[in-house]
Each structure stands twice: as C-alpha cells, then as structure tokens.
Design goal:
This protein has helices at residues 14-22, 34-40, 89-102, 117-125; strands at 5-8, 49-55, 58-66, 73-80, 107-113, 129-135, 143-150. By secondary structure, it is an alpha+beta fold. The protein has a single domain, classed as Aminopeptidase (3-Layer(aba) Sandwich), CATH 3.40.630. Strands 1-2-3-4-5-7-6 form a 7-stranded mixed sheet, with helices on both faces. Strand 6 (129-135) and strand 7 (143-150) form a beta hairpin. The longest helix has 14 residues, at 89-102. The radius of gyration is 15 Å and the shape is globular.
C-alpha cells in the first residue's frame, strides 16, 4: 500500500485535479472534458467539502462531498489518477471521507455508472449497497446506480 497524505483541497490543487479527471474514465466516457472541469473547479467546487490525496507531492486523488443529501451526505466524486490506481489510495480516501461523514450523519450516498465494473466492485468491497439504477441519467443508454453505506437508521424509535 502506498503512503499518502489526505488534506483539504486548495486552489493550488486545481490544475492537477483537472488533469487527473480529464485523463480518466468514467468521466471521458460520460463526456466530461477539461472545459467542464474548469467550470466546476473555479477554483474549488462551491458549497462542497473537497479533499485531495497527495503522494510524493503530487495530487493522486480527489473526493468531493455534498452535505445534507437524503438524510445523509453525498460523495459527488471520487477519483484516483491513473498512475496511482491499484495502490490502496482510493480506499484510504474513501475511509477518510466515511470517518468524517459518519461523525455527523448516518448515511453516505454515491453514484456509479453501470458500465464501471471496477468502481462497482470497489464500492461493494467497502460495504456499499446498490439502491437502484437511474436510467439515461447522464448519457443515453447508460444508468447511474445509487449506492448507500449506512451506520444505522437516521432516527431511533422512542
């Protein structure tokens, strides 16, 4: 496993994050390019919690969380640079996000493209359940699958 440091994203990370995402699937397949990422990261996504993983001074991963989504939080984006994949970085970043989220709420949601078998297996390995597909959500003929990991019911009886 690669040793990495996870920290809040800063405006100085913008260029590296845009490059990481522009070069990666599933976003290329979904039609996202540098222009789209430039609009989203201006210089960081507004109203979101953004974290990067750094390895040897280089941005290796990005996670964006939107608070207050369906009685929980929503992991809007989790991405790992191609050169940093299969080294445990995505799992480290996801565990970091979960630790933060589960201190304030009981549910963490995410979406994954139905064609992204690697990501679906990744989330399943980390305890996420597939809730259901949203057909033709981002591109024709493909579905985004809503996922959920929970620490328990949002409300307790009594």
């Amino acid at each position: 496993m690669t040793t990495s440091a996870i920290r809040p994203m800063t405006p100085d990370d913008r260029e590296a994050v845009i490059q990481l995402l522009s070069d990666s699937d599933p976003w290329k397949t979904l039609g996202y390019g540098a222009e789209d990422w430039n609009r989203i990261f201006c210089p960081t996504p507004q109203g979101r919690d953004c974290y990067v993983t750094e390895v040897d001074g280089c941005v290796a991963g990005i996670a964006i969380v939107k608070q207050k989504f369906l009685l929980g939080d929503y992991l809007e984006l989790l991405g790992v640079a191609g050169w940093a994949r299969q080294k445990g970085i995505g799992g480290q970043l996801l565990r970091h996000i979960e630790q933060i989220v589960f201190e304030r709420t009981k549910n963490l949601f995410a979406c994954v493209s139905d064609f992204n078998d690697h990501a679906r297996a990744f989330y399943k390995k980390h305890g996420y359940q597939e809730i259901g597909p949203m057909p033709n959500f981002l591109i024709p003929g493909s579905a985004e699958v809503l996922l959920r990991k929970t620490a328990g019911p949002a409300r307790q009886n009594g």
